[in-house]
Fold:
Amino acid sequence: MLAIGVGGADAGEVMAGLPWEVLHPQLIGVRLTGRLNGWTSPKDVILYLCGLLTVKGGTNKILEYFGPGAETISATGKGTITNMGAELGATTSIFPFDQKMADYLKLTDREDIAELAQAHRDMLVADPEVYQNPERFYDQIVEIDLSTLEPYVVGPHTPDLARPISKLADEAQEKGYPVELKAALIGSCTNSSYEDISRSAHVAKQGLEAGLKAKTAFLVTPGSERIFHTMKRDGFLETFERMGATVLANACGPCIGQWKRADAVKGRADSIVSSFNRNFPGRNDGLSETLSFLASPEIVTAYAFAGDLRFDPVHHTLKTSDGKEVKFQPPQGEELPRNGFATGEEGYVPPAEDGEELAVEIPPNSERLQLLEPFPPWDGNDFEKLPLLIKTKGKTTTDHISPAGPWLKFRGHLDKISDNMFLGATNAFSNEPGKGIDVLTGERGLPIAQIARRYKAQGVGSVVVGDENYGEGSSREHAAMSPRYLGVKAVITKSFARIHETNLKKQGILPLTFANPADYDQIEEEDRISIVGLRELAPGKPVTVIIHKKDGREVTIQTNHSMTEQQIQWFKAGSALNALS
Structure:
């Protein structure tokens, strides 16, 4: 199958039997040759690609891996690579079926699927002519020799700032990165396979045998109940704990901001390193100043012993307490546990066979849950002279629009969670995150959510303007629902991340892109913005935007959109849910 990421509204509609649309993607072929060796892991394949293609290089594209090197990577290693394809903006990523996938399916109680796949193997790999002449079938081809690939470290603040680990020490000195590591974290959905954990445990054992202990906080997040119990059974849990690690719950945890770092100081830049898939400012510990770097779990484990960002376990040594020099040997591990996976508690609770008699009861004073009310439909008129709520500068991820951390407890309460709206987004006019001007009163330095609530109370809508790849990262639906709830009518950007653009459409917000990206610079803080010709809104037809200046001048620009006829009906109805009711 092609597993394509969607927003929550998309998933709900498909479950209800409704059609789902996606822009027909281009194909990037990634030809893999050679074999991973030494310290290099599957994680390094995707970290290298993030640096090569950038966070928007895969937008509206499928990454298809092929070549003799593909068969040498474990099934879970392939999972790590495809998981992080989202950081490229890719529609999805795929590997051809091979024996390693079959072995994994069999060991995870899916032998029937493995047998079915093996019986139809020719349907699950590319046709022979694709391998013979890939240039005819792919829009772009990337070549990676796994044998020469080095371990990579990416960050801070973005997964496409990449370099081999051998280059990081010099770059850290040049750019003034804090070299003392405040935390090292491994695991998460991206890197907690048996192979990852066993290779990391091998590094941990080497350190323990040399008399070393972790010099920084070392946190381990098992990716599942099975992984946790298998770690425990095979002694990995004890190894990490002897090293000084804290093993966390089988949950998202620090990866999505469910972490209050004990030694964090607001306003101070600290460095942390993890094997997670995202490292946007404020993502992990809630502090935008924290410099978060990403690497493979075995590299992160070595970093935990060193406590220093400049350490390169491939080439450097560490000193023990008695002054001896210790050099780690390349990590070794097993792709799959020879004794199978240990089983834990089953977490699946099946739904009722007949849900007609079930009622959802929410206490009236609940701050955690709130019933959704339908958004108002479009009134049929153009948007006239709407104030600019915020013009964001630089990276504006869903984490910037709707931060996580302590806000996650309000995910079921749209009104409460909307108070976090744009808290992390940088205001292009003040460089201050999360604050702006109420143009109706002239007051400055107010939280964006407060300004939006003031406008909404007076029946005034607003417009948001953004930079490149607006809305990258987690598909966090609140990043679209909160602006809609607080009166945002349109978002105009240089470009969108795919899922966030769809989420805006779902909630009835107009997602527009500048026909001329330089027009982004035309927008000033106290401009009013009109979006006209909306009754003639049609697929592929540009939308006219008029910028009303404070001195009375008017500037007319053109914008584009990617809405289909169905999605235009969502806009007119006020949201996709409204259109379905």
User: Anything to note?
Assistant: The two ends are 31 Å apart (CA to CA). The chain has three domains: 8-145, 152-314, 383-580. The chain has a mean pLDDT of 94.
